[in-house]
Structures are given as C-alpha cells and as structure tokens.
Amino acid sequence: MKPLDNPMHKLLTVILTTVLASPAIAFDLDSDKPITVSADNARLDDSQGIATYTGAVELVQGETRLTAERVVLYRSAQGLNRIEANGTPARYQQPVTDGAGETDAKAKNITWSATDKQLTFEREAVIEQNGNVFRGDIIHYDTEQRVVTAEGSADTGSGPGRVEMVIQPRSGTISNDSGN
Predict the structure, then answer these.
(1) How far, in whole angstroms, is CA 151 from its chain's centroid?
(2) Which helix (H) or strand (E) holds 157?
(3) pLDDT digit string, tens, across residues 78-101
C-alpha cells in the first residue's frame, strides 16, 4: 500500500494539521515587527550574507521565540531567507493563533526556510501544543500548505524510532502522561 493511500497516514495528516496549525506564520518577514537576536558571540560575514550567533542565542519576532546554542542567519538581496538553529535542544515557541496556549517545539536542529516556507525539526524532535504531543526524528511543517510530514529514526539495534503522538480528548482534560 502506498503511503498516501494508507488510511492511518491520512488520519495522521489530518490530526497533525489540526494540532500544529498555529505555526503557519513562523517568522513573518512581511511583518512590521523586527527580528531581534541576542547572543554571547556574533560573527557577520556581510559579503556572504551570513550572520552566526553562538552562546545562549535568543531570536525573537513579536511573540515568536527561538533559543539555541548556535543560530546562523542567511540573507540574500531579498532579505532574510533561512535560519538554522542547533542546541541540546534548540527550542521554538509561538502562541497558538486563537490565543489559547502555545506551540513549544524542541529538536537538536531547527531550520526555517523562507523559500520553501517550511520549518524542519531534526533529531529528537518534540512538538507540544495544549497537552498534545508529537515526536519523531524529523518533522517537516509546510507553513503555507499547513502540511506536517514526520519520519521515525533508523533502526539502531534497539528497535526503530517511530513517530509518536499523544492527542488530548476534546473535553479539554489534559493528561500529563506524555512520556517525557
């Protein structure tokens, strides 16, 4: 059975789109809000359009926040087009669009691409929102189409790393049994 024909895959896509719908804005380059970066160290290579920040890096635009040990910003003539963050873990936080809660995502590598309109969380990725939890080795989020794709990790001998979700009931009751 092809992955797209698999009923569980379709169900997973619908659920994830609902759970993760709030990061659709991500970093909004059309916003009138500036992106502010603070760090222990910074290096700007203006000729290459690359700014590298290290040591307790915090990148903020409005209420969207990215924290990491290292963040690299890539600029072209059109402006900022890529952000790469690394940490143990790096963390991405953004309020939910309807104002009820926050999306809190963690991974060792987080990449935002303006060109692809995509957020990618790699290596030990965990996304939490209002008690719902989603885990995978790699999680891609298309911020324009609002489509989530996730992959488990390779079999390392102790069993394959699988994609995992905890979905809270609609009653609003939040379980603390998310396996943290």
Answers:
(1) 14
(2) none
(3) 888 999 999 999 999 988 766 677
- In the block, tokens 């935002």 appear at 112
Q: Which residues have CB under 8 Å from 48's CB, separation 6+?
A: none
Residues in the chain: 180
The total of other beta-carbon atoms located within 10 Å of residue 143's CB is: 19
Cis omega (within 30 of 0) on the bond before 89?
yes
Cα–Cα–Cα angle for 65, 54, 80, nearest 5°?
Answer: 55
Give residue-wise pLDDT tens across range 100-132. 778 889 999 999 998 888 889 999 898 888 788
pTM for the model stands at: 0.74
- How many Cα atoms occupy the beta-carbon half-sphere of 148 within 13 Å? 27
| Helix %, strand %, coil % of the chain (to 5) | 10, 50, 40
Output the CA torsion 60→63→64→65 (10° steps).
50
Structure token digits, residue 5: 């024909």
**Token pair of 73, please?**
């910003």
CB distance 114 to 143 below 8 Å: no
Separation between Cα atoms, residue 157 and residue 132, nearest integer Å? 29
Residue 106 contacts residue 94 (beta carbons within 8 Å): no
